[in-house]
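Deliverable D2.4 — example input (structure tokens):
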């Protein structure tokens, strides 16, 4: 099957470095697949397996292919005659990889690809939309408010007003991932700096009340019998650390426990929430849902339609904990992609 497979990775999103690490891991398991690197400028490079494998510190160093671009753009690559017989394993994360725009380009051409379709990806990528959909199905949510892009002077009173509803807030881009641009707002004294940060980023932000509890994440895989929840993982904060990019990918401040050391009823509730989010948003193939476990049960945070597949990522961790082989999982996703193409 892998001979007609292209691992597509890179892109221009804030998560493109994670994408390279995912591609390295996937490529090692699918050695017959081709590897197309989508550069931040939009060009497509055909990358040799040893070149990709030899790239050191992928979470910190940009990948720069040695070869000249094979295609001037992704559209040119997808319109090439050779693309008609290919199936694409998407190792992209964030931005165009998860917001549905890339998926729409595949769908327009009738090409097979892994992960959720364009409409579901767009819904999942907008955290505010996802919260509304999953909340309508009965999931517990944290109080939240959307902040439109604006200047720091306009943002300050809006951020200050949040403290009338909750004593601590987490600010994150409505449409982005991997904790890029994450801001913790713990007191009104931090409002001016937070306002300047949000203004400089220039994106829509979701202000979400901080919920005290344990941070959990659970993957869901579409099996023959329907969506199946994987073992739950817990992310613990090391004193002085933060749930940001460095904490997640550079081992600075967090530790991950798979399976999570939680009670059986808590595990069942977390897995049920993962399946609920997966089905409500309309995800395909696989997804990963983040939540906070409180005394009253799990509180939904967000869902990821193309979660990381790096050696250290949660989906590989959870598959291993379930006794499932990662290569078999990838082949299962490619089977679904072939069916989508047909």
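Example output (designed residues):
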């Amino acid at each position: 099957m892998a001979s007609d497979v292209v691992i597509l990775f890179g892109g221009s999103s804030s998560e493109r470095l994670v994408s390279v690490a995912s591609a390295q891991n996937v490529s090692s398991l699918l050695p017959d697949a081709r590897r197309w690197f989508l550069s931040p400028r939009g060009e497509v490079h055909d990358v040799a397996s040893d070149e990709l494998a030899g790239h050191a510190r992928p979470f910190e160093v940009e990948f720069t292919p040695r070869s000249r671009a094979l295609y001037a753009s992704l559209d040119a690559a997808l319109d090439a005659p050779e693309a008609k017989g290919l199936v694409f394993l998407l190792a992209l994360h964030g931005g165009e990889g998860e917001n549905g725009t890339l998926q729409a380009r595949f769908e327009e051409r009738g090409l097979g690809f892994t992960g959720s379709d364009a409409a579901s990806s767009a819904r999942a990528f907008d955290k505010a939309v996802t919260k509304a959909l999953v909340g309508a199905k009965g999931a517990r949510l944290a109080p939240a408010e959307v902040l439109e892009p604006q200047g720091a002077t306009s943002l300050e009173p809006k951020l200050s007003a949040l403290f009338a509803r909750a004593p601590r807030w987490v600010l994150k881009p409505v449409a982005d991932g991997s904790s890029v641009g994450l801001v913790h707002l713990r007191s009104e004294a931090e409002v001016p700096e937070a306002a300047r940060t949000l203004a400089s980023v220039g994106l829509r932000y979701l202000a979400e009340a901080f919920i005290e509890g344990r941070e959990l994440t659970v993957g869901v895989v579409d099996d023959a019998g329907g969506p199946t929840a994987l073992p739950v993982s817990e992310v613990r904060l090391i004193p002085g650390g933060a749930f940001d990019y460095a904490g997640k990918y550079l081992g600075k401040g967090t530790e991950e426990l798979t399976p999570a050391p939680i009670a059986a009823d808590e595990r069942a509730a977390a897995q049920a929430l993962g399946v609920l989010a997966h089905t409500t948003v309309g995800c395909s193939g696989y997804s990963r849902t983040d939540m906070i476990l409180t005394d009253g049960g799990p509180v939904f945070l967000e869902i990821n339609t193309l979660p990381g597949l790096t050696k250290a990522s949660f989906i590989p961790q959870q598959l291993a904990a379930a006794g499932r082989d990662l290569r078999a999982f990838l082949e299962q996703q490619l089977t679904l992609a072939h069916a989508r193409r047909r």
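The mean pLDDT is 93.
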